[in-house]
Known about the structure:
By secondary structure, the protein is mainly α. 49% of the residues lie in helices and 2% in strands. It has helices at residues 19-25, 27-30, 36-46, 71-89, 96-108, 125-131, 147-166, 174-185, 207-228, and strands spanning 2-3, 14-15. α7 packs antiparallel against α8. The N and C termini lie far apart (37 Å). Fe (ii) ion binds at residues 74, 109-110, 216. Residues 74, 109-110, 216 line the site of fe (ii) ion.
Amino acid sequence: MNISQTYFGHEAKTSPTTDKEKIQIFKRHLERIKTTSIKAFTEFAIIRLPEYFWTLPASTTNLNHAAGESLIDHVMGCLYISRQVCDAQFKDHWTQRQKDQLVSALILHDGWRCGIEGSEYRITQEMIDEKSIDQKLLGALKTTPEHPEIGYRQLLLLVQEFNQKSGETGGISSRNVSMILKAVRYHYGPWMEVKHKPFSLSWPYDSVVMQVHNIDFHQCHNMIYITRGDQDHG
Length: 234
Ligand SMILES: [Fe+2]
């Protein structure tokens, strides 16, 4: 393991290098998933996430998300909130299957934040000039607003591979795939790239899809408020 950036307090203090270490980071949340095929698929996808996922800052421009927060911190924050959503707030309104779909989608929702490995998005001089980004970040990895769509498509490929390898056990059902991938694809909610909205202004208001967007949004904005004191952040 290499010493990575500071994590906010969950058990992962270092950057994982092996599959086992990657799974270990999400272990306590993977254990919340009771549908065997959803858990197995989520683990299958975790170990195939781009390497940059494990060390990326939550905000690649240092303008959004909490100051000093890593992407893992952000995902872990979302998972922490999801426990309250599932087991307290909406305790009697969720089926186990929905809880499993929610946890899986949250773990995977930002998996391809900077695009596909080998053709990652990076910070350009134009972006620095336009958005007052620190000059030192020129050439650094950059979150792309297309990452929900990219993540969705990468997961679709992984579903195919997972189901082929699962053979007689049947893999993950289309019902579960549909909800998990839809939640990843639409997690930007109203801010998703218009060109990727398949049905003009429509947005699927399933509970799982809605909560992935809601949890993601509020984890981000609450931490901005706490760590930056910015009450007016858009
Ligand atoms: Fe996110």
